[in-house]
Design brief:
It is built from three helices and no strands. By secondary structure, it is mainly α.
Length: 111
């Protein structure tokens, strides 16, 4: 691929245009990771009949459809976060390559 200024412009546009989406994806991922703990506690409380041990409550919480559904949401949140992270890193690599190419061209000694 021949690196052009157009590639750099598109990379910069992508970074600017997707900064909010990347931040939202990261926030969603962190929220889902943290909420998983709260959800487990809430579900354990639901399964507490006063006669069940904490281990049984925990087992029931992990098996609960709400917990399983949350894990699916967490999986999607992680995917979106990582996908945007990698796309943004790729665009930064284009910019870095352009900077290197430009510096090399400036430093080239004419023969």
């Amino acid at each position: 691929m021949r690196l052009t200024e157009d590639h750099v412009d598109k990379a910069l546009d992508f970074l600017q245009d997707n900064a909010e989406a990347a931040a939202t994806a990261r926030a969603e991922r962190i929220y889902c990771q943290e909420y998983r703990k709260s959800l487990k506690s809430l579900l354990m409380k639901e399964h507490d009949t006063g006669k069940r041990s904490a281990a049984i409550q925990e087992r029931e919480a992990y098996a609960d459809d709400k917990y399983v559904a949350h894990l699916e949401a967490l999986k999607e949140a992680v995917f979106q976060d990582v996908r945007l992270q990698y796309l943004m890193e790729a665009k930064r690599a284009v910019i870095d390559a352009w900077q290197t190419k430009s510096a090399n061209e400036r430093n080239r000694v004419p023969f």
